[in-house]
Design goal:
Number of strands: 10
Order of helices and strands: HEEEEEEEEEE
Structural class: mainly beta
Oligomer: single chain
Number of helices: 1
Helix content: 10-25%
Length: 187
């Protein structure tokens, strides 16, 4: 079941990247964001589990392998964040489904339906260690869409969250507080 959720999250992220890559407009720079091309950052604070008491942070190059995509569908907007930090052997995948304009979203397990909520998964590379969000809150700030295409584009945003996660393989419940900054791509 957990592998199916992991595969589903990764598939959505990959499809979003392919969709944006195939439909990207080349109308030149659409804005002059001072953070364009700046590295992405993250910080995760753990209470309980394998990483108890640790704060893990990283700086990730702003490339196509670490990206936030935005899809605007009727009544539900989706943001898919994929952050791959090879230097710390950590992958972070966040799928946010929200009603238009919502900046606060509840973290919940993937129910497979199209309801508002956020699914968060943190994977340790070369290990079976996986953190899957159970509940909590997620707040979006500084949200902006870049390189727009019909019904979507590449997003820049700051995500703050706190919640309870299941740590695999131990199945222990762990609290994680995090901040992820996804900067706009170079224009």
């Amino acid at each position: 079941m957990k592998n199916a959720q992991k595969a589903r999250l990764l598939l959505l992220l990959i499809l979003s990247i392919i969709l944006l890559g195939c439909n990207k407009k080349d109308d030149g720079p659409s804005d002059s964001d001072p953070n364009a091309g700046a590295d992405h950052t993250y910080e995760l604070k753990y209470v309980g589990g394998y990483n108890d008491g640790q704060t893990i942070s990283g700086v990730v190059p702003n490339t196509n392998s670490s990206i936030a995509t935005y899809i605007d569908a009727p009544n539900l907007q989706s943001i898919a964040i994929g952050l791959i930090d090879n230097s710390h052997e950590r992958n972070i995948v966040i799928i946010i489904k929200r009603s238009p304009g919502d900046l606060n979203v509840e973290i919940k397990e993937d129910s497979g339906n199209d309801e508002s909520g956020a699914q968060i998964a943190i994977y340790a590379q070369n290990s079976s260690q996986i953190y899957q969000g159970l509940n909590g809150t997620l707040t979006i700030s500084n949200f902006k869409v870049h390189q727009e295409i019909p019904n979507g584009g590449i997003a820049s945003l700051i995500v703050n969250f706190t919640g309870q996660f299941t740590e695999s393989p131990s199945q222990e419940t762990v609290e994680i507080t995090g901040k992820i900054t996804m900067n706009p791509p170079s224009l």
